[in-house]
Design brief:
Shape: globular
Structural class: alpha/beta
CATH architecture of the largest domain: 3-Layer(aba) Sandwich
Strand order of the largest sheet: 7-4-3-8-9
Radius of gyration: 22 Å
Order of helices and strands: HHEEEHEEEHEHEHEHHHEEHHEEHHEHH
Largest sheet: 5 strands, parallel
Number of domains: 2
CATH topology of the largest domain: Rossmann fold
CATH class of the largest domain: Alpha Beta
Length: 317
C-alpha cells in the first residue's frame, strides 16, 4: 500500500516532473518507462551497484541507499575509500537500507529513481514518486552496469576515459608479468565453508583480463556464480598466489580473514601451497569486490607490487 505521505509528495511534484522532456527506456524487467531526457535529481537505491558507479561517472545522486554502523549512522558502502564521497561530506540524503524508507525517497524529490532487484522497496510504491528504472546488476555484470548508467546520464565520454585508463593498467601488468604461467584464485571462509568464485568482483575481472590462469575447480564454476565448498576442497582451490579479503566497513582486519579460514579447517595454511610459501595476499574487500574503476586501479597496483619482479615458487602439479 502506498503511504499517504509518499502519495502526497508525489502529487505535489507531479506537475514539474511532467513538464520535463522525456524519452522511453526499457529496463531489465522489460518495463518501458518514460524517463527525463536529462535527469537532475537521481535517487539510487543500491549503494555499491548504482551509487558508486554514478559518482565515478561524475553524476552526484541527490539521495542513496546505504548501510548503518552499530551506532546507527548511515554510510555508502565502500564509497569513502573508492570515491571520497559519503553522506557525511556531501549533500546526498540517506534513504535507509533494505528496504529503503519510501517516505525518505519521496521527501528527496527525485526526478528519476534507479533501483535493482536486490532492493526490496516495492516498485509500485516508488512509481508514485518518480519514474523508476530497475537494473539487474547481477545479470549485466559488475562493470557492464556502467554502460547503461552512462547512457542514461549522458556520461559516455567520461566512461570512455575510465575504460582507457583501465586498459592501460591491464597492458602494464601483461608487459611486466608472465601472467599465463601464473595461477591465481580468490577464496573466503564463511560459516565453516570455503567460498570461491568463477570471477570475484573487480579483482576477478582484473586477474582474468590480465591473463592469469585459475584452478580447474574454479573454471568449472559457471560464469557469474560462486560455490560454497567443504574443507576437503581447499587443495583444489590452491594456486601460485591466493587472494583473501576482509570487510573493513564492519571493522574487520586481516586477522579476521585468517580466522574465518581457520573456522573452515584448523591449521588451514598447512594445506595451501600459497599460504605456506608466503604467497597469499590479504586485502580489503571493498576495493576487491566493488564495481569501481578506481578500485580496478588500486588492484592493478597491488598485483604489480606483489608479483612483478618477485622471486616466487610455482605450486607443484
Amino acid at each position: 500500500m502506498k503511504t499517504a505521505y509518499a502519495l502526497a509528495i508525489a502529487a505535489l511534484f507531479a506537475l514539474p516532473a511532467a513538464a520535463q522532456e522525456t524519452r522511453s527506456f526499457t529496463d531489465d524487467l522489460g518495463r518501458t518507462v518514460e524517463i527525463p531526457l536529462e535527469a537532475q535529481r537521481i535517487a539510487s537505491l543500491q549503494d555499491l551497484a548504482i551509487t558508486v558507479p554514478l559518482i565515478e561517472l561524475g553524476v552526484m545522486p541527490i539521495a542513496s541507499h546505504g548501510r548503518t554502523t552499530p551506532e546507527g549512522e548511515g554510510f555508502i558502502r565502500g564509497s569513502k575509500v573508492l570515491t571520497g564521497v559519503d553522506f557525511d561530506n556531501s549533500d546526498i540524503e540517506f534513504l535507509g537500507n533494505l528496504p529503503v524508507d519510501i517516505e525518505a525517497v519521496a521527501a528527496a524529490e527525485p526526478d528519476l529513481i534507479i533501483t535493482t532487484p536486490w532492493q526490496t522497496a516495492p516498485v509500485e510504491q516508488l512509481e508514485a514518486i518518480a519514474p523508476v528504472i530497475v537494473l539487474d546488476d547481477e545479470a549485466r555484470g559488475d562493470f557492464e552496469i556502467y554502460d547503461v548508467l552512462a547512457e542514461i546520464t549522458g556520461t559516455q565520454d567520461r566512461l570512455a576515459v575510465l575504460k582507457d585508463r583501465y586498459a592501460g593498467q591491464v597492458e602494464q601488468i601483461r608487459r611486466l608479468i608472465d601472467t599465463v604461467d601464473i595461477s591465481v584464485n580468490v577464496i573466503q571462509g564463511v560459516d565453516g565453508q570455503v567460498l570461491s568464485w568463477h570471477t570475484y568482483g573487480a579483482l576477478g575481472k582484473l586477474l582474468r583480463d590480465a591473463g592469469f590462469t585459475f584452478p580447474e575447480r574454479v573454471e568449472a564454476i559457471p560464469e557469474g556464480q560462486f560455490e560454497r565448498m567443504s574443507p576437503e576442497t581447499l587443495p583444489e582451490l590452491d594456486a601460485d598466489f591466493l587472494f583473501v579479503t576482509y570487510r573493513t566497513d564492519t571493522g574487520e582486519t586481516p586477522a579476521d580473514a585468517f580466522a574465518h579460514l581457520e573456522a573452515v579447517m584448523p591449521n588451514f595454511c598447512e594445506f595451501l601451497f600459497a599460504c605456506t610459501s608466503n604467497q597469499m595476499i590479504v586485502m580489503p574487500r571493498e576495493e576487491a569486490s566493488a564495481s569501481s574503476y578506481y578500485g580496478l586501479g588500486v588492484l592493478s597496483y597491488t598485483v604489480l607490487s606483489h608479483i612483478s619482479g618477485r622471486q616466487f615458487e610455482h605450486k607443484p602439479e
